[in-house]
């Protein structure tokens, strides 16, 4: 037999969610975990039915009714907020009754709401196992979340690397083809500008590839500075660049951009005590000048306009313009029997 004066201590260890009631229904003892539910309100001394509401059976309104359901499952909840739901069973003792309570299926909510740990439950309580499982699941989910974040970051980095020119940081040909296809499939008009660096081969041949790389990086910076954030600038070859201007079809504005690019790219580029000299030839086509529009056709027409600029002396800009006599953009010359330059406007 457990000595009566030690009963409360034993119950706190074995049943940390217990209540001891006297014969009038007043609380004379409370388990430490149950008291944590109302840390600022001492339960000892309060009447059980004023602190808790029995939801099943509802017929219990006094101590006699509670003892009449000795051994039966009770459903109850705290009367104040939060109205935590509990389950319990009552057994009579000489001084009144002992109720052992539990959270039932609401244990996870209780653990969260009251910051409970495994130390708040009896050592044999299966709730501890459940808490371990929940903690293990949470740890696994957090590890999975972090792994997914790393994988997603790696995928984004790999995709970005696959679409980026490593030397200049611009988009590469693969990215250009992707963006051009997307823009061609859209409903907004756009302009495509093909730019080639003149005399770049001479820089490579006479000053070395390091100087050529430096010139390409300077040129890339200029192209980015002279375009908008929503425009796309790509390096598609050794000294070839493609620029796309979403929603822009105004030849006056496009011509102004081309003039600034030509002017800035003609400025000497210092490199290790020497000076690199290049220029830029540019050809521009509008999306409305191609049926569909068709990406391959746009690139071809921009290329025609570019080479018209080169034939015109380099360091200039030409708009592609079709003629009624030749849909390729060239008109037949009546002198020397050779094709003339495409009709267009140079910036």
Automatic annotation (TrEMBL):
Identify the stretch(es) annotated as Disordered. Answer: 318-347
Q: Where is the composition biased (Polar residues)?
A: 325-335
Residue ranges of domain GGDEF in the record: 188-322
Alphabetical list of Gene3D superfamilies matching this protein: 3.30.70.270, Haem NO binding associated domain
The EC category is lyase
InterPro entries recorded for this chain? Answer: DGC-Regulatory_Protein, GGDEF_dom, HNOB_dom_associated, HNOB_dom_associated_sf, Nucleotide_cyclase, Rev_trsase/Diguanyl_cyclase
A UniProt-annotated Pfam family: HNOBA
Q: Where would you find the membrane-spanning parts of this chain?
A: none
Q: What is its EC number?
A: 4.6.1.2
Per UniProt, the keywords (alphabetical) are:
cGMP biosynthesis, Nucleotide-binding, Nucleotidyltransferase, Transferase
| Highest taxon of source | Bacteria
Keyword Iron-sulfur listed? The answer is: no
Q: Which GO terms describe its molecular function?
A: diguanylate cyclase activity
UniProt-listed PANTHER family: DIGUANYLATE CYCLASE DGCT-RELATED
Q: What is this protein called?
A: guanylate cyclase
């Amino acid at each position: 037999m457990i000595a009566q004066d030690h009963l409360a201590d034993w119950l706190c260890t074995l049943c940390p969610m217990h209540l001891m009631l006297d014969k009038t229904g007043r609380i004379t003892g409370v388990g430490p975990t149950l008291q944590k539910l109302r840390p600022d309100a001492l339960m000892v001394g309060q009447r059980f039915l004023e602190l808790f509401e029995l939801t099943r059976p509802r017929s219990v309104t006094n101590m006699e009714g509670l003892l009449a359901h000795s051994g039966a499952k009770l459903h109850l909840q705290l009367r104040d907020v939060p109205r935590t739901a509990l389950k319990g069973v009552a057994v009579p003792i000489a001084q009144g009754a002992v109720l052992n309570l539990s959270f039932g299926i609401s244990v996870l909510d209780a653990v969260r709401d009251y910051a409970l740990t495994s130390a708040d439950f009896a050592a044999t309580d299966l709730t501890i196992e459940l808490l371990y499982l929940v903690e293990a699941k949470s740890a696994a989910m957090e590890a999975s979340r972090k792994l997914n974040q790393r994988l997603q970051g790696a995928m984004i980095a790999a995709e970005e690397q696959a679409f980026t020119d490593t030397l200049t940081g611009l988009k590469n040909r693969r990215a250009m083809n992707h963006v051009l296809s997307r823009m061609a499939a859209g409903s907004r008009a756009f302009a495509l500008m093909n730019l080639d660096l003149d005399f770049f081969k001479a820089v490579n041949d006479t000053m070395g590839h390091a100087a050529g790389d430096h010139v390409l990086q300077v040129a890339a910076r200029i192209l980015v500075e002279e375009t908008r954030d929503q425009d796309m600038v790509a390096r598609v070859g050794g000294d070839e660049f493609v620029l796309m201007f979403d929603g822009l079809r105004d030849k006056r504005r496009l011509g102004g951009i081309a003039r600034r690019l030509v002017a800035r790219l003609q400025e000497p580029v210092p490199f290790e005590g020497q000076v690199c000299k290049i220029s830029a030839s540019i050809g521009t086509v509008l999306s409305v000048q191609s049926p569909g529009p068709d990406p391959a056709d746009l690139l071809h027409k921009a290329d025609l306009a570019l080479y018209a600029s080169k034939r015109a002396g380099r360091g200039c800009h030409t708009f592609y313009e079709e003629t009624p006599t030749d849909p390729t953009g060239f008109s037949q010359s009546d002198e020397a029997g050779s094709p003339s330059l495409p009709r267009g406007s140079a910036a």
